[in-house]
Design goal:
alpha+beta, 301 residues
Length: 301
């Protein structure tokens, strides 16, 4: 708050669900100055839970909230005091865990490290319809480059790549297609992935259509340090490209995105998504910091 003007709130409690409620109290009630510790005494706990509407409980969606209110359960305290046999038939194991968490029994483990992704997708709608194969090749190569960079940041490699293209579904002559190509060896190296993606594009692209969107999906992800060889690729040496990829990533990281890019991605890119109304990124980009210019009506003596 002092440095950026962005407020934060902290809630501390014995269970994950109660911590979410404590966080909500810290956020909504200014007297706690952004930090709320769930109380130890039962009567104080009841006061906190009574003030939380049932639809504001973490994990309660619209349908569940309607059903709960129809059963005269209007707030977190009433849900806590409800019999478990009433909750389970409608809400299943999710509802049982939520009910127990409200009663101080921890059922939801903290994820200290996010689970590895099973797939990574990069797709964009075009600023204008794409009508030529060359432009579509540029788009697919650009999306593949972004997806490959994501994989390297995640320290993952992909075993297969899916390419999809589609036209406007609300217009006549609609066309949509996709293809999945398995890779001989798991990879996160941009040139290999671009080559595979463009091969797939050649198989599904059709002339005579105005394409609205295209994208790539990396599937079958695995840790990049796990390398399964291929008996049919005796001369395959991934280290040949590794230094080049690392150098490009380092340049783009230190000198700005797309300082170095692959030629097949194109230079004009008139098909890219329009971003005229994107909010300024004051806190993450130096180039978008507001500039104050002073003007003087009289010369200083």
């Amino acid at each position: 708050m002092q440095w950026t003007g962005i407020p934060i709130s902290i809630g501390i409690a014995p269970t994950k669900t109660l911590a979410k409620i404590a966080n909500r109290v810290a956020k909504k009630d200014a007297k706690y100055l952004g930090v709320f510790i769930y109380p130890d005494w039962s009567h104080e706990q009841d006061e906190v839970l009574k003030a939380i509407a049932v639809e504001d409980i973490w994990g309660i969606g619209r349908k569940y909230s309607i059903w709960l209110r129809a059963n005269l359960i209007n707030n977190a305290l009433e849900l806590k005091n409800s019999p478990e046999y009433l909750i389970q038939p409608k809400m299943g194991i999710v509802g049982v865990r939520l009910h127990r968490e409200l009663n101080g029994i921890s059922c939801l483990d903290l994820e200290l490290q996010p689970k590895p992704k099973k797939a990574t997708c990069v797709s964009r709608s075009f600023a204008r319809p794409v009508k030529t194969l060359n432009e579509m090749r540029e788009a697919i190569a650009t999306h593949t480059t972004s997806a490959a960079a994501k994989l390297r940041r995640q320290q993952q490699s992909t075993m297969a790549i899916t390419i999809f293209i589609l036209t406007n579904r609300f217009k006549d002559n609609y066309y949509s297609n996709s293809i999945t190509l398995p890779l001989p060896v798991a990879s996160n190296r941009t040139p290999e992935l671009i080559n595979a993606a463009l091969r797939g594009l050649e198989l599904i692209y059709r002339d005579g259509y105005e394409y609205k969107k295209a994208g790539v999906i990396m599937q079958g992800l695995q840790p990049e340090n796990v390398r399964q060889g291929n008996v049919f690729l005796q001369d395959y040496n991934p280290n040949k490209q590794q230094k080049l990829i690392q150098t490009i990533d380092r340049l783009n990281s230190t000198m700005g995105r797309n300082t170095v890019f692959w030629g097949v991605s194109g230079t004009n890119k008139s098909w890219t998504t329009k971003r005229d109304n994107v909010s300024p990124r004051y806190t993450t980009l130096w180039d978008e910091l507001p500039v104050v210019k002073a003007s003087f009506s009289q010369e200083l003596e």
